[in-house]
Amino acid sequence: MPDPAPISAAPVTRSFLRRYVFSTDHKVIGRQYFFLSLAAVLVGSLLSLLMRIHLVWPHAAIPFLGEIKPENYLGFLTMHGTLMVFFVLSTVPQNGFGTFFLPLQLGTSDMAFPPLNMVGFWVSLVSFLVLLAAFFVPGGASVAGWTQYVPLSAVPAAGPGEGLGTDLWLVSIGLFCLASVISAINFVTTTLKQRATGMDLMRMPLTCWAWFVTAILSLLAFSVLTAAVIMLLMDRNAGTSFFVPGGLMVNGHAVDHAGGSALLWQHLFWFFGHPEVYIAVLPGMGLTSHLLSVFSRKPVFGYKAMVWATIAIGALGFMVWGHHMFASGMDPYAGFAFSTLTTAIAVPSAIKTFNWVATLYGGRIRFATPLLFSAGFVSLFITGGLTGPLLAQPALDVYLHDTYFVVAHFHLIMAMAGLFAVFAATYFWFPKMFGRMMNERLGRLHFWITLFGSYAIFMPMHLLGVAGHPRRYSELTGLQYVAAMAPLQRFITLAAIATIAGQIIFLVNLFWSMFKGPAAEANPWECTTLEWTLPSPAPSKGFGDHEPIVAHGPYEYSIPGEDKDFLMQDSPATRDNRNAS
Amino acid sequence: MAVALVLALLLIVLACVWLFVAHPWWFPVGVSAQSAALDHQFTIALWLLGALFVVGQIVLAVSLLRSRRKQQSGYSRGDWRLEIAWTLAITAIFFWFNISGDRLWSSMKLQASDANAVQVEVTGAQFQWYFRYPGPDGKLGRTNAQKFAKAEEGNPLGLDPSDPAGVDDIVSTSMVVPVGHDVDLNLRALDVIHSLFIPAMRFKQDTVPGMDIHTHFRPVRIGNYEIACAELCGTGHYRMRAVVRVVSEEEFHAWLLKK
Questions:
Q1: Which residue, among A30, A6, A8, has the nearest Cα to A17 in the 3D structure?
Q2: Which of chain B's residues have a Cβ under 8 Å away from the Cβ of A448?
Q3: How many CB atoms lie within 10 A of CB A477?
């Protein structure tokens, strides 16, 4: 087995700082994004743990923090949502794995604009630090939730955390938008301009298709959010009134604004916010398609249908934002349009699910950890997805809106499915990123805990929602019927504690394997795609002078009559290959 | 591993089905005119989506289990006939369901209330609900919260003292309505967005500063029902509670007179 070559074996000699810190190498930047998301997910999970504990044991004394107050709870809630949505789900699937693997899978040695790539990461890091700084300013973090509905987020008198904490939130998200747009430009250009010879669009792995479509969504969605946060910052600090209507009396203070529209913020936010859901989950869908094919040793069933479904989800994703606003006072006629369009988006999602199952069907499946997490992704995607058509109906949604039913829905489909894809990607690509293998036994144990944990936490939340339990309540004592649901809330907290504790297994596996894991071969999973033609870890020169020439599609597994059960994309097309698409 | 995964999926399906069949927590008894139709639509959703859930998970499990009987993977790059078939099938199912939901939505939102509906103005404020009735003159007085609102002096909404229409207005912290009559609500907010949520009435509507939102419901059973706030409005969001008291018509008029 080859010794995992350290990156310093690069032919170009550069200073340590330029090689590992301010590097323009997409492989270094991909890993930097990976660790940024790891930091964010640790903080985000810790916050959810604190919230769950406070909810059922409001007077519990937490080490170092003491008793959690309602405003602390809401601050944690805002930060949990923001960290998880922006710095985990929008960062690691796209900018983490995508930055590392998009060029390699396309057969090129770097992104189109390596310096922009580096700038994107550093702006994201600053954005992350600005966000966390809100915990340490007077008033603490914003209490308005990750959606920052105005006027709660626009008027400092509306609550603790609505002063400097909210300005920091807005600045942080503004920077994050900038970084995302920069990064998206790089993804789109790289995909369109840098593909290796023979890598037609319809020969790209579905991961690349997902990153490509996601980048287009990022470009459009984050631009709108940038405008929205700048407008809100100006309402707060420059005396404009985009969002704040006249005549408000907040907490005894007459608010000196007039003429704004509170619903305008919601339209702008969700015009970003719904595509954002797909920004978070499309890379995971692409990865799942990819891994199910690799580990069932079968071509992806319906590759073209998968590509068109990805594009359809991306396009429809921009037309459904109003389903977040059925109860907002929006014209009820708009409800029909948004309901129909939302139902429409369930169709390509279902097509993907059918094709995933059909890919597995009839395969001699290798049950390695990445496959387990991919199968878990499909299971969670079905479970979380099926409440979508229900919530797409305004009549039913209005009752369930802002209850735990919705919390269950989006955690299953976006957060849990999204995380399962991230875990699958980590176990799968770890050898190429770090040159070593992760431990399979720990990986499986981690899978079982996380699978049962996800269901145990989020399935019962549906019942809370049906019984009318509003979300974002810091305590259960305010209403009698809510207080009656405390036993179920306690069960969910216990499940959350167990599941989050189970993630320690993953962390141990990750860091132990990084330094002590067995050295990885170039192609340990026997995949066809180009990143596996390189040694593990991928050397910093990438393909160097040997740009690959692509002759085959990405999923040529188990071709009848071949001696090996996989055909590398760059295998020479010596004979008339009937499968070359 | 295949067997373990399949057993896990089946266990999850069983647990989920049990959870929804036993449902130790569920809808409160519906007490408004629209609750029966809404509960019916939810039941349809539960059966339809529940069936798709069970079938989906089981097909996934079977696909994993079949792997054990295979020596080598089959080679199939897809089948357009299958793609078209399942696309049409799922489109038909989802849109049939969608259209049935649209019908319900139009019956809830697009019909005017009775001419003799009781008028109630609802105002959300951090962290209190106010309900205002027009009094004998049938007119609500002007308000100007910035100028006149003083909760401690009994004028939380900022009724303009110079407007005669407002002199007989009744402001209450609980909603009192007569049974069997449409209740016409005008929803407003003083400071931030709130949301009037009455689970027993299957009713929810955000109250948005700067907007007057009109909607209505009809209570059909006498009793006291809790009102929650369903839109994050600040630190006291969880305790922004009120009660709707549904009373007989006589009792309602007696209450109005007493006020």
A1: A8
A2: 8
A3: 13
Written as six digits, the tokens of A92 are 């690691």
Question: Mutate which of B3, B5, B155, B240 to test chain A, going by most A C-beta atoms within 10 A?
Answer: B5
On whether any CB of chain B is under 8 Å from the CB of A535, the answer is: no
Beta strands in A129-262 (DSSP E): 249-250, 253-254
End-to-end, the C-alpha distance of chain A in Å comes to: 34
Cα A208 from Cα A200, distance rounded (Å): 12
Strands B194-198 and B223-229, by their bridges, are: antiparallel
Instruction: Name which of A282, A271, A283 is nearest A314 in CA terms.
Output: A282
Spell out which residues of chain A touch residue B226, defining contact as CB-CB under 8 Å.
479-481
| Burial group, residue B183, by CB count within 10 angstroms (0-12, 13-18, 19+) | buried
| Angle at alpha carbon of residue B16, lines to B2 and A89, rounded to 5° | 75
Q: In which residue are the tokens 């890379």 written?
A: A283
The interface predicted TM-score (ipTM) is 0.97
Round to whole Å and give the CA distance between A122 and A124: 5
Strands B118-125 and B183-189: parallel
Q: Could you give the C-alpha distances from B196 to A147, A156, B167, B207, B230, in angstroms and in order?
A: 19, 24, 26, 7, 7
* 3-state secondary structure at position A261: coil
Q: Is the Cβ–Cβ distance between B86 and A351 less than 8 Å?
A: yes
Is residue A125 scored above 70 in pLDDT?
yes
A151: preceding bond cis by omega (within 30 degrees): yes
Helix, strand, coil % over all residues of chain B, rounded to 5: 45, 25, 35
* Cβ–Cβ below 8 Å for A367 and B2: yes
- Tell me, what amino acid is at A552? H
Please state, in angstroms and rounded to a whole number, the distance separating the CA atoms of residues B58 and B52.
10
Q: Which residue of A160, A394, A478 is in closest CB contact with B239?
A: A478
Q: The whole model's pTM is what?
A: 0.95
Place of tokens 């189109």: A112
Interface test with A, best of B34, B75, B110 (most A CBs within 10 A): B75
Is the pLDDT reported for residue B144 higher than 70? yes
CB-CB: which of A144, A251, A481 is closest to B199? A481
Q: Which pLDDT belongs to residue B234?
A: 96
Residue entry with tokens 């309402």:
A235
In this structure, are strands A249-250 and B175-178 parallel, antiparallel, or unpaired?
Answer: unpaired
CA atoms within 13 A on the CB side of A422: 27
Q: Residue A411 and residue A459: Cα distance in Å, rounded?
A: 10
| Those residues with Cβ within 8 angstroms of residue B4's Cβ, 6 or more apart along the chain or in another chain | none
Q: Identify the pLDDT of residue A574.
A: 64
Which residues sit opposite A62 in a β-bridge? A66
E runs forming strands in A4-158? none
CA atoms within 13 A on the CB side of B23: 13
> What distance in Å separates the CA atoms of residue A201 and residue A307, rounded to the nearest whole number?
10
Residue with tokens 């006072």: A329
Contact B72 A558 (CB under 8 A): yes
Q: CB-based contacts of B27: which residues, under 8 Å, 6+ apart?
A: A466, A467, A468, B39, B42, B199
CB contact under 8 A, B191 and A249: yes
Query: Alpha-carbon distance A571 to B219, whole Å?
Result: 72
Of the candidates A382, A388, A311, A314, the one whose C-alpha atom is nearest the C-alpha of residue A346 is: A388
Q: What is the dihedral of CA A219, A222, A228, A229, to 10 degrees?
A: -130
Query: Residue A392 and residue B237: Cβ atoms within 8 Å?
Result: no
Measured between alpha carbons, how far is A563 from B14 in angstroms, rounded to an integer?
A: 43
Residue A52 in this model has a pLDDT that exceeds 50: yes
pLDDT band per the 50, 70, 90 thresholds, residue B150: confident
Rounded-to-integer distance, Cα A167 and Cα A141, Å: 10
Which residue reads 């900038």 in tokens?
A: A178
